[in-house]
Design brief:
alpha/beta; 8-stranded mixed beta sheet; 345 residues
Length: 345
């Protein structure tokens, strides 16, 4: 398959379905419920953003999909991850290796911990192609150079002979994207792909991902805490808190009318352009979400966000809310959505 070949994927077809996923980590201090009942699906050519604070379970969900967690201490306690009708959690390791990197690829947060420091970047891209596509060494190297050109690396043939330490952070992240996209995956998981980059290079990487998605029809799961990136990149959003899904909707719905207090807090903590030019001459103070994320080693009774929530009632502390549809295409796990909308809607 040529590097530039477009993948046939219907926008109505679910590329991946995650159903009631529970991932636990067994530690000396107890069982950490890192992912607690997560369910979502992503369709062909779609970008689904997964947002939340550090420790909310975003990366653990992604690594569970690809079965990249060390087991033990990790254990996928229950749930299903369906790709083309097959449950990835039941596949033998040999079959899973055939899917990982070929059908489903991942861009990791820090490229220097993922790239081999003693292998040229061209050979690292070619290695993925040879492993999954069964090509000759010469053809794989040729396709690797094409992949580097595709992600906007100048003088790709020369750069392919260089080592990761000879490249800038932005270049290394492009190499990671080239490796991930070299085999034309149907699904790309990007875990904080621009966190360590300055804003100029971040914009270039995001534009590159948008361009590749449009050219190749790849679905993208974008893990981030940056709502600005979400607004630019995604069509739908999943908001996670303490290992649980608390809201899911389209991007437009989420920004226009959030239906969970945690989402409202996240949106309120985003700096506003020109906020310092208020009529009274003072900048509007950023909102903060008081309190801390609860320990996921403890049994959480009721809503996990209740101790930090200004809308919480007695029921919130005693009964866990169900993730239910509040309006068409918009789900939230909150007992007090109406109170939130009455005050902020």
């Amino acid at each position: 398959m040529a590097v530039l070949e477009k993948i046939a994927a219907s926008p109505t077809e679910a590329v991946l379905k995650v159903e009631d996923l529970h991932t636990h980590f067994h530690t000396p201090d107890g069982v950490v419920r890192a992912v607690n009942g997560v369910s979502f699906e992503i369709r062909g050519g779609e970008t689904l953003a997964v947002v939340g604070e550090s420790g909310s379970g975003k990366s653990a969900t992604a690594l569970s999909i690809l079965r990249l967690l060390a087991m033990p201490p990790a254990k996928i306690a229950s749930g299903r991850i369906l790709y083309q009708g097959r449950d990835l959690l039941t596949l033998p390791d040999t079959e899973m290796r055939g899917i990982r990197g070929n059908n489903i690829s991942m861009i990791f947060q820090e490229p220097m911990t993922s790239l081999d420091p003693v292998m040229t970047v061209g050979k690292q891209v070619a290695e993925s192609i040879r492993l999954h596509q069964g090509t000759s060494k010469k053809e794989a190297l040729s396709r690797a150079v094409t992949a580097l050109e595709l992600v906007g690396i100048p003088e790709a043939a020369q750069r392919a002979k260089e080592y990761p330490f000879q490249l800038s952070g932005g270049m290394r992240q492009r190499i990671m994207i080239a490796i991930a996209m070299a085999c034309n995956p149907r699904l790309l998981i990007a875990d904080e792909p621009t966190t360590a980059l300055d804003v100029t290079i971040q914009a270039q990487i995001l534009n590159l991902m948008i361009d590749l998605k449009e050219r190749m029809g790849t679905a993208i799961i974008l893990i981030t805490h940056d709502l600005g990136v979400v607004a630019e990149m995604a069509q739908r959003v999943v908001v996670m808190y303490a290992g649980r899904m608390v809201e899911e909707s389209t991007v437009d719905q989420l920004f226009a009318r959030p239906m969970h207090p945690y989402t409202l807090g996240l949106l309120g903590s985003v700096p506003r352009l020109y906020s310092s030019l208020e009529p009274d001459g003072g900048a509007e103070r950023l909102q903060e979400i008081r309190g801390i994320v609860p320990s996921m080693r403890d049994d959480i009774i009721g809503c996990a966000f209740a101790p930090r929530c200004g809308f919480a009632t007695k029921r919130c502390h005693e009964v866990p809310p169900v993730l239910e549809e509040k309006q068409a295409g918009h789900r939230a796990a909150c007992w007090e959505t109406q109170a939130l909308l009455d005050r902020h809607g």
